[in-house]
What does this fold into?
Amino acid sequence: RAHAIDSQTPDDDGRTTATTTMAMATMVRCGVHAVRGGAARRRRGGAVDARAGAEASSATTTSSFGAVDGMSAETCEGLKRALAEDLTHLFDAKGIDAALYASDVSFTDPLTKYDSFAGYKFNIDMLREVFKPTYTMHDIYQTGPWEISTRWTMVMGLPAFPFMWKPTLTFTGLSIMGIDPETTKVKTHVDTWDSIENQKHLSPEGVAEVLKQIFDFSQTPALETPGYTVMKKFADYEVRKYDSYLVAETGPGVDVREMKDGAPTKMDPQAAGQSFNSLAGYIFGKANEGGAKMEMTTPVFTNSGRMQFVLSKDKYESVDKLPASTSAAVELKEESGGMFIAKKFSGIATDEAANDVEKQLRKFAARDGLQTSGPAALAQYNDPFTNPLLRRNEIIIPVSNFEM
It folds into this structure.
């Protein structure tokens, strides 16, 4: 994979062996990936079985060129660097570099198919103009003798008219690129999505996935919220990587890690009211030094006996820059973020609803081999006056063993 390599490493005699180290590392990353590519893709999960068609297509392309030994380590590294740089411009004004792709490159994903670079570029330009996507590449690695794959996340919006509820579409998956051995240009490009099994062009499952996301009417207020990246979006849930964020929390000394798995995610109504009032007093300036009034944020997190209000990290950056609390009931802290699984639901977040979603999420985690590492939390994004059908509620649970 494309990770940094130390330029110099001392051997047993103290001598510098930069060239040897680089060569060995490159062989491991390129040569070994070429041998183990298929198995590696299967371990990464997400629409695994459904990628058989894409792999077969790549294998056919490779064999048709008559390449048996595969690309050299130098070619592999050069292509990975070039493609990684090129894909940073996938949806910006510069765009992708035509020199890296065959003029008759074939592109296929669950909804679209093109058999030329012109068609490929048309699709990219259309997505950029209509959906304003953001693309994040997490990794790039060799997966076959003449095949390079990338793992990515893409988030897209829809035009305000006629989509007045402003849905957001999120996809994660693999791009499997077959390389022409004679020109070292991308000859085939197959995209797969983690959220579906049937990856074939015009897959009914793919159409249903897009429609499901378009007609998700839940609303997220335009307020500051903890940042996260969706690492994998499955049909049932998401795996997210959260940035660190600041909170005001009821119950000094309460640590989420000390609370047991399975503890109720909803608070007792009376305790919730008291906690809400304590936190509101802090952010509205009645219980902080200097009487600072803070901007509203979202969501409100609850777990059993604790409640958290998110505080603006854009403004305060760290806990020591926050106005000190003058209430013994409010503690200021920084949550470290990390990997979480999350499942969204709408409606009123009753005890029964929250517990049902938590049970489902834990079942999915067990099914997919993910180890939960802490209690579940309920995240509520909307005020009590929002139509229950439009509310965004989520259960999130930390996990310790997620791998791409």
User: Anything to note?
Assistant: The chain is about 30% helix and 25% strand. Confidence is low (pLDDT under 50) at residues 1-29, 31-68, 252-262.
